[in-house]
Amino acid sequence: MENKKEEINENIEKDNKKIPFFRKFWYSIGRIGQYEKLNKEGLVASLKYFFGLVAILAFILAIIYSVVQVKMSNEVIQYLNDNLPEITFKNNQLSLDNDDATIIDNEDMADKLGNAIVINPLIDENEAVKNYSNLATDKHNCIVFLSEEFIIITSKYNSENSDENTDLNNVEGITISKYSDVSSRYISDTDSEYHKEAVIAVLQNSNSYYYYIAENFIVCYIKLFIEYFIYITIISILIWIVVKLLGKKKNIKWEFKETATNVIYASTLSIVFSVIYFIVNYFTKFSIPIYDVISILLIFVYVYILLIKSKKKKIE
């Protein structure tokens, strides 16, 4: 009798023992038969697993993106160092050491910068828009640095909507900003004189792995979390309604908490698929038009298998 009691107590302890995170990960993808064990830990435990899974995968994405971005930034900084003219910035005014405009419109570099760049403090707003609006494309904008302001021209700009007398501040695709309005955010002493070396130094100091990783982690986590939280919520409600309506006939009974818990674990492979897809798309630009459909379908496949197993167990 005592041996049986000890055996029962050992079994209870085993049942109550929490399943480690990475074992849950393995069970979720490759051991559907273990979902019953996962379900015993409840909805709260499954939500903690979901938060942890999204955090780990978002961090992996953030590191990959950051390494590439820092490398790209170094290339951009080196290019600017080699191609930017000698400039002087003082009292919120920009000037060149020569009278030649500098245009950085190399397609590859403009894409990396996110903008084609023109430095020409010798012309006014209307001339700048007229001469350089063609450098704005669907892939990147064009920024024109003038004497006391800079203009951002996007592909939305249409030259037919303006002429020499048009107020460019009211034209779609044109944004004009005074140096005096933005310089205080980046320069502590606007009375001092700054040259090209100062611009390069600012760019180098801001090119930090830690900054990129933190920024990318937040973006990736929010994207994955929102996307899959919506998927899980909608699918859980749909499955629960279907089971409620057809469960008696099919001999299946799932409460909402059990349904949501199963859907969370069933979403594991789908989340991993999304991360792999993001990485491949980032490096190769390869895209799958039905990516969202595949992500949702993967969850439904796991849930469908679970429903069949649940039905067989009830019959047995």
Can you put this structure into words, describing what you see?
It is a single chain. The chain is of the alpha+beta class and 316 residues long. The protein has 2 domains: 132 residues, no CATH class; 99 residues, no CATH class. 64% of the residues lie in helices and 10% in strands. Helix 4 packs parallel to helix 11.
Compact description:
By secondary structure, the protein is α+β, with helices and mostly antiparallel strands. The strands form 2 sheets. Strands 3-4-5-6-7 form a 5-stranded mixed sheet. A 3-stranded antiparallel sheet has the order 2-1-8. The protein is elongated, with a radius of gyration of 29 Å.
List low-pLDDT spans: 5-13
Sequence of strands across the biggest β-sheet: 3-4-5-6-7
**In angstroms, what separates the terminal alpha carbons?**
30 Å
- Cα radius of gyration in angstroms: 29 Å
Number of helices: 12
How would the global form be characterised? elongated
| Residues in helices, as a percent range | 55-70%
